[in-house]
């Protein structure tokens, strides 16, 4: 399981090289990737500001939640594991469709070479989005 987790991080962050030291620009790059992925996969429903006001939101019942208030709805703690399970499809959200996370699960894994572990790729991409959402909490 540890190998899968490491593979997920490597795939999500696109890290190359060893040494374990993080370059100063790495957090900025992850934040940028998270924002880009969020807007591509989540923004049409949850909105550009992640407040539930995306252009598709008016057509949905129930309406998408305000993702900037996840921590506030959980006693001030951002539930990273629960958010990750929702995004990667392990905890289904009826409005998202199948358990393959709102139609996005397979897309998250599609760019990965056939030899790679698809579930790790899906979770790695989702983890980058989770980190972006953590930074949006108010």
Please sum up the structure shown:
With 138 residues, this protein is an all-alpha fold. It has one domain (2-8, 26-136): Cytochrome Bc1 Complex, Chain D, domain 2. It is 51% helix and 0% strand.
Walk me through what this model shows.
With 138 residues, the protein is mostly helical. The chain has a single domain, classed as Cytochrome Bc1 Complex, Chain D, domain 2 (Orthogonal Bundle). It is 51% helix and 0% strand. The protein has seven helices and no strands. It has helices at residues 2-13, 26-41, 43-46, 70-73, 80-88, 104-110, 118-136. Helix 1 (2-13) packs across helix 7, helix 2 crosses helix 7 (118-136) and helix 6 (104-110) packs across helix 7. The protein is globular, with a radius of gyration of 15 Å. The protein starts with a helix and ends with a helix. The model is unreliable at 1-20 (pLDDT under 50).
């Amino acid at each position: 399981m540890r190998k899968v987790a490491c593979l997920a991080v490597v795939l999500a962050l696109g890290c190359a090289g060893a040494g374990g030291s993080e370059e100063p620009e790495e957090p900025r790059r992850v934040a940028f990737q998270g924002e880009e992925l969020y807007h591509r996969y989540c923004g049409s429903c949850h909105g550009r500001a992640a407040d539930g006001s995306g252009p598709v939101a008016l057509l949905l019942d129930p309406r998408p939640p305000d993702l900037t208030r996840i921590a506030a709805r959980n006693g001030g703690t951002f539930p990273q594991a629960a958010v990750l399970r929702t995004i990667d499809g392990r905890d289904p959200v009826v409005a998202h469709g199948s358990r393959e996370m709102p139609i996005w699960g397979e897309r998250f894994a599609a760019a990965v070479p056939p030899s790679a572990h698809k579930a790790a790729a899906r979770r790695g991409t989702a983890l980058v989005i989770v980190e972006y959402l953590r930074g949006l909490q108010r």
